[in-house]
Amino acid sequence: MTASTTGVVVQGTGGVWEVYTEQGDRVSASMRGRLKHEAHGALKLAVGDRVTLARDAQHAETWAITDIHPRTSKLARRMPGGRYGERVVVANLDQVLVVFAAARPEPHPRMLDRFLVIAEANGLSARIVINKADLVAPEVSAAVFADQAAAGYPVHHTSIRTGEGMDALRDEVEHRSSALSGPSGVGKSSLMNALFPGLDLRTGAVSESVNKGRHTTVGAMLHPLPHGGFIADTPGLREVGLWGIEAGQVASCFPEFRPLLEACRFADCIHTVEPGCAVREAVEAGDVSSGRYESYVKLRDELTGKG
Ligand SMILES: Nc1nc2c(ncn2[C@@H]2O[C@H](COP(=O)(O)OP(=O)(O)OP(=O)(O)O)[C@@H](O)[C@H]2O)c(=O)[nH]1
Ligand SMILES: [Mg+2]
Ligand SMILES: [Zn+2]
Any residues with Cβ below 6 Å from ligand 1, and which? Predict the structure, then answer.
């Protein structure tokens, strides 16, 4: 007799995987032989994948992953040239939360743009969280990321000290699968603990180095949320980086550039020196922020080896 169920892979980087079942149990499982062969040596399964599990009555302790359900999205590190394919860091994410602090550490709009471009290149919607709102006057922190808000990204102001913004952010995170990203020390783990007290994530300046020392393979890990949904703490965008993004793809990773791209005089316009460039005209007219344009040039140069 065989029992079967479905679940979501929450941890593991090959070999044994931790799966959170639809019954709310956390079980260990390995891929069934047939599935392994289909993978052609590549790591086919990733954290976030929905899977079917089966268990034989004779081996009641061991679950086998018998099927991987189709993905709705993936945050992937693509290898250049496509020779080694890609490595999926987290599958089936609904959104990325890019967290910065209003202060301590100081926020950097150009660094935020880098995170946003990585999310866009992976086809994931992004939400900006400005944490530690208790440290800075609201109009000051709103001004820092005003260009990104104007580009259409939702912005949350939060503080774990005052509780500001917590209910609104929780509403956007519950029942979804989200990855948190952002610089060290901005309060990502603190925020998750404040939103969902049962999570008990490690906080403090050393959290990440401690984690790296404990696990030789630092992979993504999903935390199930009490009322449904999952959250991945740090690993995510930073690990994926700009790796494998094509230089020609960068302009379309700026949502406010997209309606302009068809209007450039040259189809292969790279929006730097060409005459009749609709993007540069919009920057000069003040319709597109010069800071965002600066990020575009910088990231593109980095990908073409000029940066
Ligand atoms: N004043 C203030 N301090 C905060 C707030 N949120 C977090 N902190 C403090 O900021 C420090 C860093 O918080 P963490 O949650 O460890 O930051 P993190 O982003 O998870 O850092 P890494 O894991 O290193 O990436 C801790 O000392 C927190 O107490 C806030 O809203 N206001
Ligand atoms: Mg942390
Ligand atoms: Zn152009």
Answer: 131-132, 134-135, 159-161, 184-190, 203-204, 207-208, 234
